[in-house]
What does this fold into?
Amino acid sequence: MGMDNAGMFPVENTLEMFLSFDRAGIITYANTAARDKLEYGTELCGNYISSIFPNEFKKTEQGFSTEYIFDNQIRNLTAYRKNLTCFPVEARIVWEEERSEYVCMAYDILEKEFLNQEMERVQQEAEQALKVRSEFVANVTHELRTPVNGILGNIMELTQQEEDEKKKRALQLIERCCGDMNKLINNILDFSKLEAGKFVLETRRFDFRNMIDYVRGNHQNKITEKGLDFFVTVSPEVPEYIVGDELKIVQILNNLLSNAQKFTHVGRISLEIIKTAQIKNMVELYFLVMDTGIGIKKEDFDKLFKSFSQVDASISRKYGGTGLGLNISRQFVEMMGGAINVESEENRGTTFTFSIWVTDGDADTEEDSVEEPSVYTGNGEVPAAVLELQQKNGAETEAFRKYGSPENRELFDKTLSKMVLCIEMENWQKAEDFMETLKQLTEEAPREVTRCILRLKMAVQKANYDKAINGLEELKAIMEHKPEEGMQTDGL
It folds into this structure.
């Protein structure tokens, strides 16, 4: 086979040297790497294999003699260039029955060692760059925290002294912005520590239910202020005391509940904790954070746990956030031997689940009893209790969103009453939250209702008291009529 057939070989441009030779020891094919490294160029084909590997192959009248064993073993050989200089190679020479030829694949050991050294050097440089970047981020975030906390302290003091309601609302807005800035700083600092591998689990014995009460207290007011129901349930099988990293568990739950509160305007948010397995004194705890919010498309699931990623650019514009929270939560969960997963459907709510392994703080460490595990691994069978909770959540979400259902109408009336109060007090920020709830509750409503809702939303966003009151009166008038009678309204 001559050089004209070189294109038939998929190995033509590989880094590895590739040669083939016949029973007479004549080289019939050599790829680009072989021609260049052996410095024969196009003259390599037609030469004898004994010229390349003289220590293994001897030229004879019949072809060649050799003690080389033609198998798949990689052996260290010495290859000779055209100028008789040599270099070590790792080679494998086999007999190809179909082509009736010998095939040799060889790799320059010196080049391989050089490439390995280069890779190691590049890796060290990358690690050093990451370390410098992480230290820079840590220093900057610490420096940012000082002025933010200084502003926050002064604003809190001014808020207590201020009597003018309009000025007080402005100060409260600045206070909330400072709080949000601190959350962003903490997320960035945590992310930089995780990247640098500086996070370690700080385990201690603590009262698990007291921790859950603390988490509930952090979110109760914000969730109920939006007109949402908030339920927290801990299974009786969960130990009273556990040994684990309390702060990281709290951070995971705070992140998931904050997301649920941010993206939910209709229905409920619930936190459920159950025990799914126990092996000696090691316990697997399974957490479910369920909401009836806007949901997530399945094709966007893979974006959720990536750094600096939101499922949609409009999400960050409307709701804010860095996209770091879920990535940090995932890494914390994995550090505790568990996994985090999501189940969701657009406009039908979201369920985040995660499992962690902790030590039973009440258990006798010498006890050898083992409960039959019902472990959820992320790709195995989901425990029946978990399925029941998720199905219940899905059914309730559908009932809330079905326009005209008893659940829908009850929540609509309750939300409307709260929004009227917010408008009367000119608390426009809360009024906007309730407005979003009304918008989602009426997505399936007749056209005159949805158009009225849109006009009312525009009035609330512009903080226009007169138009908002008129919009409320118009909405009440429409809702008092039967759907088939309708009520014609002016166009937008």
